[in-house]
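Recap from last week: sequence in, structure out.
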Amino acid sequence: MTRKEAREKARALVARMSVEERAGQLRYSAPAIPRLGVPAYNWWNEALHGVARAGQATVFPQAIGLGATFDTELVHDAAEAIAVEGRAKYNAQSALGDRDIYKGLTFWSPNVNIFRDPRWGRGHETYGEDPYLTSRVGVAFVKGLQGDGETLRAAACAKHFAVHSGPEALRHRFNAEASKKDMEETYLPAFEALVREAGVEAVMGAYNRVNGEAACASPALQEKLRGQWGFEGHFVSDCWAIKDFFEGHGICENAVDAAALAINTGCDLNCGDTYCFVLEAYEKGLVSEETITEAAVRLFTTRYLLGLFDGSEYDGIPLTEVESAEHLRLAKRAALESAVLLKNNGLLPLDRRKLKTVGVIGPNADSRAALIGNYHGSASRYVTVQEGIIDYLGDEVRVLTSAGCHLFRDRTESIARAGDRLSEAVSVANASDVVVLCLGLDETLEGEEGDAGNSYASGDKETLQLPESQRELMEAVAGTGKPTVLCLLAGSDIDMSFAREHFDAILDIWYPGSQGGRAAAELLFGEASPSGKLPVTFYETLKELPEFENYSMMGRTYRYMDRLAQYPFGFGLTYGDVRVLEASVTGDGDGLTARVLIQNRGEADTGDVAQIYVKCEDSPYAPKNPSLCAFKRVYLKAGERETVDIPISHNALTVVDDEGARYVDGREFTFYVGTSQPDRKSRMLTGKEPVKVSWRL
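Predicted structure tokens:
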């Protein structure tokens, strides 16, 4: 069904409704209209890395891990699996008349905000700090979720529009001030790509104000969205964000005024209860009948596009698709590809034939919470890192275990002394041939404001350090002198300075999903090679960053930072040795192609990511450092070489001026082609130089 056909049907249906009925359909929990055969529908559902909050589902790696794969085909397939499971659950539950929250087909995912500051607690919901990577992964997710059938497989939602990345504690009253250049160059490109390229069905407004205007009622943002980009779907508020108009931002007197401001500025659907006052606003002459009608038509257009009235080709998807063997294999593959090897002095991969005892230590070793991040579903079985190692080694190798410490408290048992598990951890390490030390965070330490009992700062991190309990454990294990792999389970930049100096290897597996333990074991013991790349910068300290509340990009992320990173964006080691041998760039201003000769000179088969960065050499508006403009995941057996063609879009040649205008401003460009960023720290860590290609327009 085309959008035009769906809209015509929606308009005809809405025309049969009273104004009261139309206004009632603008709330996320839309009531039934029995006389018109309209069932109740709850718009609120989540699918960040699997169908969330609705029972059994395949739990994929958290979004930040999906970003670390640099694999758009994988992300597309994962999103398709998520939509299939969403349909399966919807088909089964709606047949029983269950139309509750988290059971619809309108998924409020993906989160394509830019992870501009490592303190932001929700950063792990995003695909990282780079607008190009975010746009490519986001487009793949939306296309996979929505499908290309006669009807939408599910409806995706680009959130949170726009300029939203903390602080969580201030989000209900915060005004994010961003320059025109930063808006166009950093904060908006992913949203534009999801609208223009992927046809995303919905966009969600953020809690904060943007340059003085509430994001859910911003004429400037709506002009971008519907005016310049041609968005035709529906716009939804973040949950209870419209209430913030009068309770937090102080731009409205009361709920009636807030409802009027939001709907008059293009917000069709309210997650919250403020649109209970739309009818009162209409009766007071603050909102026209035409405005209410248009919002309702947009919403019913989506429902028709989903086939909720006329049926769809997805109505027969059975419940047995949920956590199917194929989907679980895909989740494990995603966990394998997302893992980033930050350090390896030769200890990895571990050789099981040379080991008698392995010590698995740390509060995240046997933690399900550390597998799942936030906005997650419920797996029928979780495999923790500890379980994955035990299952992998079987009876051949003895595994000794110790939590070592609480995740963040000073003791694991309330009436014990502080550090009550340290001696056990040291004993385990002393008795082991090698130690796998599993540290990090979970959603209780980094997440959404009010979403969990955060011990530090309303969901945000106050420091890049691990909690003190874990720092003490690191020192204790390091003191044993045993060969140690630090396995990090977290969703953001964590200070690895101590681990870098004292441990043999560091493997960052993010929040790897329900199959994370299986993937970790295969990576640690060489069944697969790590091949993920950092989608964020790991900084040495917070001191080098601007204040958290400052939304200027100067000094932030790899594109604008001045100092050397601890571990750079785009960095990640493998068990192989993949190098770009030759590269050329051909084409014109309409589009370019890089031809890349790449070889694995190592002794292990491995995946890797060919990355291309561009620097416009003769424009004052170019970002300080080269910017990612293309990438392609490759897989090479030991010794294998391959020539790959990688398209580079016209946008790679453009810059953004101080007024926010994007255009080609220079003629001299340098492209850097390698398996990492062309920065000095990446060259130091990898010992590899990217191939440098000069190109003139």
